[in-house]
């Protein structure tokens, strides 16, 4: 592998195609969205080209501020849950035999092949009163009568964590499998218990990976719009649900675009802040 | 040796033939490139299946025009797609079945090509409320079918059929209801106005609408599910998970006929009467075929067939239809229906949507 900087135009050739794709399928659509967010909404019709800040002004209200805070909070909570489950899981996984690791990873990749709709409906059945898990608990004598656990905040959270968990493991896995086992051995030799060694040595060494995983899952969860609808009550709907409502059901593209731009902006700011914290906290 | 040769030959020819066959199937347009065809959008799922099975083949058989049916999403999602496509000069479907709110929104941007009623044989029999017109009198859409949104219930959870929409406010029904999530497709403002305020006249002013919304807020504890996706509520209603709510009369009737413990009731205040029009995208070049299609679909015998097979209410005058009273009663009712205030969803669309979202989310 060559590590020198590109010398002449032909050296850029290998990255031309990805750059082109990124431009056509990301930069241009995003630019169009920003453009539409300044267009004028025609009520009872569609929209017309113009330059207005009215769509952003409508967003700046306590109602949408609360929605934004809820969406960001939910996404952060999903990330935290995924990390709490994913980190010990991945650490244990990398200590298993090669064969077992492959089987586990295939299983996790299998989950990724499920569509959001199927995940949503499966969980809503599992958590339902008539056919759900609570019937099993009643049969086991743990509960008096079956109850509906969906729609609820816990159901939304469960669905989102389930959906994001494979991504968490897949992002953590390479770093954990490269982790030098001598770190843990040294900690144990110096008298640390396995748990203490894990918390005080392994986790700090993994700080950057953990932050990267947090951000990926956070952004993934921020875009969720189906699971909150299927598993939640209206107060658990995220901003993405309202963006969909405006774009698809109210044919209000400019307002939907303005909300989407705001959402992207808010998540970029959070990513920048966490990057800053990481740099300062990292020291080296 | 000979045998081997022959088998190789036949296998090869089989492969070639099946490749050709598969590619022909993959591109149906190639098969009937010479023929006339039209793309028709109808609501996906049960609706489209019934049309594909009972209605479109008859049309193709008689006129030789092939129908390529397109599953359209409910609500205004399809309108947005048609609108975006028309701006680019494309039509994902030539004709589409559009609900009233979407019709009106499309009319305001001249999305629909005008229909020449002189080419429609039974034009005079279409009930006037099912003809959508531009302000200058051109026809934007012709009534395809009408449908009712009724009070539905699970017969195991509710042995007695509910009689009134007011039952939805009963504190005994806490956590039992499934209602449509959007102001412009649930028509719950009209239901509340007619049930508690003597009619939809109160919705003329913003103060009146807010009063109706206050009344509507009282039933929030009873609502277990605000649905956008119909399948979600249908499933829950059948299983009894959510034993009551508002739903389409036609689909509920079919589910009951399949043996599920569900029923649809026309409450004493009336069912909600909504309708769909055939509307032609201005980007379509199949104007002639579209007129032939509308002409065919507005025949009394086709309207009757749709009532019997799809469960929708006819858009033609009662006296030209060959339906028996019993058949007619199964798809319609003599109780004065709740007619949605479509004007609100265009003139006050954004204000209503904002207040509604705050009402159900808050």
Number of strands of chain B: 10
CATH class of the domain at 51-118 and 154-278 in chain A: Mainly Alpha
Note the gap between the termini of chain A. Answer: 27 Å
Please give the share of residues in helix of chain B: 40-55%
Largest interface, C-beta closer than 8 angstroms, per-chain residues: A-B, 31 and 36 residues
Number of strands of chain A: 2
**Into how many domains do the coordinates of chain B divide?**
2
Terminus-to-terminus distance of chain B: 81 Å
Question: How would you describe this protein?
Answer:
The complex is a heterodimer of chains A (284) and B (362). The radius of gyration of chain A is 23 Å and the shape is globular. The mean pLDDT of chain A is 89. Chain A has a domain of 193 residues: MetI-like fold (Orthogonal Bundle). In chain A, a hairpin with a 5-residue loop joins β1 and β2. Chain A is mostly helical and 284 residues long. Chain A has 13 helices and two strands; from the N terminus they run αββαααααααααααα. The N and C termini of chain B lie far apart (81 Å). In chain B, strands 1, 2, 3, 4, 5, 6, 7, 8, 9 and 10 form a ten-stranded mixed β-sheet that branches. The longest helix of chain B has 25 residues. Chain B is globular, with a radius of gyration of 23 Å. In chain B, a hairpin with a 5-residue loop joins β4 and β5. In chain B, α3 runs antiparallel to α12 and α7 packs across α8. Chain B has 15 helices and ten strands. Chain B is an alpha/beta fold and 362 residues long. At the A-B interface, α12 of A face α4, α5, β7, α9 and α14 of B. Chain B: It holds the Pfam family SBP_bac_8. Chain B: This is Extracellular solute-binding protein. Chain B: Keywords: Periplasm, Signal.
């Amino acid at each position: 592998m060559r590590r020198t900087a590109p010398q002449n135009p032909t050296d850029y050739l290998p990255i031309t195609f990805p750059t082109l794709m990124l431009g056509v399928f990301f930069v241009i659509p995003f630019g169009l969205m920003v453009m539409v967010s300044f267009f004028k909404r025609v009520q009872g019709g569609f929209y017309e080209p113009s330059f207005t800040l009215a769509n952003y002004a409508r967003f700046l209200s306590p109602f949408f501020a609360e929605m934004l805070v809820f969406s960001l909070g939910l996404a952060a909570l999903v990330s935290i849950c995924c990390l709490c489950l994913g980190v010990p899981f991945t650490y244990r996984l990398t200590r298993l035999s090669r064969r077992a690791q492959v089987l586990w990873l295939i299983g996790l990749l299998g989950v990724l092949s499920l569509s959001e709709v199927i995940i949503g409906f499966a969980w809503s059945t599992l958590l339902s009163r008539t056919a759900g898990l609570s019937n099993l608990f009643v049969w086991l004598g743990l509960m008096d009568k079956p109850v509906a656990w969906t729609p609820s905040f816990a159901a939304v959270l469960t669905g989102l964590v389930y959906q994001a968990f494979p991504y968490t493991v897949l992002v953590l896995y390479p770093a954990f499998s490269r982790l030098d086992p001598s770190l843990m051995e040294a900690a144990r030799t110096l008298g640390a218990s396995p748990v203490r060694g894990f918390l005080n040595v392994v986790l700090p060494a993994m700080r950057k990976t953990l932050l990267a995983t947090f951000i990926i899952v956070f952004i993934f969860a921020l875009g969720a719009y189906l699971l909150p609808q299927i598993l939640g009550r209206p107060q658990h709907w995220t901003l993405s649900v309202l963006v969909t409502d405006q774009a698809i059901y109210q044919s209000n593209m400019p307002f939907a675009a303005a909300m989407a731009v705001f959402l992207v902006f808010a998540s970029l700011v959070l990513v920048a802040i966490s990057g800053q914290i990481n740099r300062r906290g990292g020291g080296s | 040796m000979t045998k081997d040769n022959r088998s190789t030959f036949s296998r090869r020819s089989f492969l070639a033939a099946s490749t050709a066959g598969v590619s022909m199937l993959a591109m149906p347009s190639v098969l009937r490139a010479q023929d006339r065809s039209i793309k028709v959008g109808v609501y996906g799922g049960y609706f489209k299946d019934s049309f594909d099975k009972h209605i479109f083949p008859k049309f193709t058989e008689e006129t030789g025009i092939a129908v390529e049916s397109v599953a359209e999403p409910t609500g205004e999602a399809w309108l947005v797609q048609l609108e975006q496509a028309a701006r680019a000069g494309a039509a994902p479907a030539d004709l589409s079945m559009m609900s009233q709110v979407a019709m009106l929104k499309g009319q305001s941007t001249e999305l629909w090509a005008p229909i020449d009623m002189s080419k429609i044989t039974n034009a005079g029999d279409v009930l006037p409320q099912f003809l959508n017109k531009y302000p200058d009198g051109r026809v934007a859409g012709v009534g395809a079918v009408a449908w009712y949104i009724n009070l539905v219930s699970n017969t195991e959870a509710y042995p007695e059929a509910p009689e009134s929409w007011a039952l939805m406010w009963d504190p005994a029904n806490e956590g039992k209801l499934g209602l449509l999530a959007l102001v412009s497709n649930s028509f719950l403002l009209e239901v509340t106005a007619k049930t508690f305020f003597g009619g939809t006249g109160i919705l003329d002013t913003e103060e009146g609408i807010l009063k109706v919304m206050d009344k509507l807020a009282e039933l929030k504890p009873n609502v277990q599910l605000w649905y956008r996706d119909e399948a979600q509520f249908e499933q829950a209603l059948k299983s009894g998970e959510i034993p009551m709510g508002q739903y389409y009369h036609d689909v509920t009737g079919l589910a009951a006929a399949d043996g599920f413990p569900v029923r649809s009731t026309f409450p004493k205040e009336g069912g909600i009467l909504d309708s769909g029009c055939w509307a032609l995208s201005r980007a379509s070049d199949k104007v002639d075929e579209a007129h032939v299609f509308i002409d065919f679909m507005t025949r009394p015998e086709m309207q009757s067939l749709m009532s019997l097979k799809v469960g929708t209410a006819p858009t033609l005058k009662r006296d030209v239809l060959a339906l028996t009273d019993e058949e007619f009663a199964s798809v319609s009712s003599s109780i004065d229906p709740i007619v949605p205030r479509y004007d609100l969803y265009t003139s006050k669309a954004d204000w209503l949507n904002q207040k509604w979202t705050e009402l159900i989310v808050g």
